[in-house]
Write a structure and sequence with these properties.
single chain; alpha/beta; Cytidine Deaminase, domain 2; 7-stranded mixed barrel; 36% strand; globular
Length: 127
């Protein structure tokens, strides 16, 4: 699987991760046909935002309504790992579902992408 992401969207994710450090930054990936056309930063409302993320439900609902009207889709979400680990954590795996959505992780000023399979996370190529 491959996910297209513009350099401006990628840089916006990395900037959000740097700004929210040491908390996990998070947001939504919006686009069409496997191409991220924009990101929507969200507040991390998790009880332990230094260790896990939870996208603000109001942002989540608003963006889903917006994309329905525009023809875009929510392709997945992004979050940062302030600990520098560029792969999904155990907390990520415990909350993941096999719905085809992409998880982009910002760590060490770089991005990796993943999707959940029936067994585990699988790497997604960023293009």
């Amino acid at each position: 699987m491959k996910l297209g992401i513009s350099s401006s969207a990628a840089e916006a994710i990395l900037a959000h991760a740097r700004a929210d450090h040491p908390r996990e930054a998070c947001g939504l990936l919006v686009g069409r046909s496997g191409q991220v056309t924009r990101i929507v930063p969200a507040d991390n409302v998790a009880a332990r935002p230094h260790a896990i993320f939870e996208i603000d439900p109001a942002t989540l609902l608003r963006v889903h309504r917006e994309v329905r009207a525009s023809g875009e889709v929510v392709l997945g979400h992004y979050h940062s790992h302030p600990n520098g680990r560029a792969e999904p954590s155990r907390a990520d795996a415990a909350r993941a579902v096999t719905d085809g959505q992409v998880w982009v992780i910002a760590a060490n000023d770089a991005l990796t992408a993943w999707t959940m399979t029936a067994e585990d996370f699988a790497a997604v190529e960023l293009a």
